[in-house]
Amino acid sequence: MDVFVQLKEVVPQYLDGVRFIVNDQCSGREAWEIILATAMIVVILGWLREELFLHELSIFERTKLSLFRTIRNLPIIGRKIQEELDKTKASIAKDMFPLPPGVFYNTTLPDNGLSDDKLLTLIEEKYKSLETIDWQGGRLSGAVYNCGKHHDELMAKVYGMFVGDNLLHPDVFPGTRKMEAEVVAMCCDFFNGGSSACGTMTSGGTESILMACKAYRERAYKLGIKNPEILAPRSAHAGFPKAAKYFKMRYIEVPMDPETKLVNVRAMRKKISKNTCMLVVSAPSFPYGVVEQVEEIAELGTRYNIPVHVDACMGGFIIPFAKRAGLDLPRVDFSIDGVTSISADAHKYGLAPKGSSLVLYKNTEYRLGQFYVNTDWCGGIYASPAVGGTRSGAIIATCWATMMSVGVDGYMENAVKIIQTRAYIEEQVNFVVTKMHTGPGIADAFLSSLKDCTSEIMKDPKAKAEGIAAVYGMAESIPDRSMVEEFVQGYLEAYYSTKT
């Protein structure tokens, strides 16, 4: 009580002192000078706040970027650097998408449409024949997760039945709308979402991630957070910083343990601020394949009332079924308090054709932030659940058909086989295992090829890398990441090039 009385006496004295200083500084000045000085101070403080706290890049990163930009603008050095960049970009275009002799790009429409026989022959001889990697024989890490020839033929029939369906008009195509609702419901079920869980299908893991980030941005805006921040492990999928870029959010990375590659939960807690709109955890992380501490991060989310997104794009159709089969794996589902959304790719270990993913939410309140509704468009009311407007019903139908065809037993068997095969290969080397690799002899063939390649490399370990291998090595060693960005842009440009 005495402290309160003392403060009551001291505070007015300090306020009088401040008032005296301000009045003394303004003494003899005209009103316009005071107003202008005040406005300038407000502008400067606002600029400092933007630069120090709200910019997507740190001061260190911006300083480094500015330094490299200055060097590249120097007359002689800059010209030399650009020449080398152009050479590298040209080699990327040449090495990444070469065409066999006598094969050229078709850049104009045919005068007359091709017959069915001619069209199929053209596709087989000039396009399908360009595939040189035996991916169907298991000689590919990741990328393809299919069930084999019989399943592909079945999906082709299903696709043909629904090839014209457009889910922008669900009233016209009620069958595929029902299928999508059922796919979402089945996924909510094996993620233990209960009756309140919901979600949507998307075109892939990146879109699923984007939609979760967009939903939490909208939630942040409603809570008065003007500059929402995504807090994610350094190992998080690139879709999260991509979402930050698209949706004008700030992306903050959390360091990992250098040995375990798990996220540093203590560091994540310290980085939580009033602007944090979501926490991210991977199950597993794409770069390292480790399931991060979902329960610990979910506890942080509960404590600070922050949504937690589990990126299970890789493990979503493996971990729940492996656990059901009795394998000792951590929980990654809605049974954990604090987990508010999950992304899972049906077109990976869900074995569905490409273009099938899901984003699931604890309840409909979270999902509402994902939807886009425009009530004032001159063409009428426009609404879409995810990024796409028009969506192929055939993709949804094949995803539904795959899940119904494989079933719980099939996914359990698939999960156990993959984990067992991975464990066998992991005794000698890390490797991304899919269903195709579980076939007889494929793992041993891979290990044999690996030994052969290693022996060849060890004949001359210091040999200079060529082609795209050299580009990858150089990209890792260049501190100026804007130069690396140019390399990658060169790759994207080459992707769409029709020059030979």
Could you name the ranges where pLDDT drops below 50 across 5 or more consecutive residues? none
Coarse structural class: alpha/beta
CATH topology of the largest domain: Aspartate Aminotransferase, domain 2
How many domains make up the coordinates? 3
Largest sheet: 7 strands, mixed
What's the architecture of the largest domain in CATH terms?
A: 3-Layer(aba) Sandwich
For the largest sheet, list the strands in their spatial order: 1-7-6-5-4-2-3
Binned, the helix content reads: 40-55%
Number of strands: 9
Number of helices: 17
The Cα radius of gyration reads 28 Å
Mean pLDDT: 85
Task: Please state roughly what percent of the residues sit in beta strands, choosing from under 5%, 5-15%, 15-25%, 25-35%, 35-45% or over 45%.
Answer: 5-15%
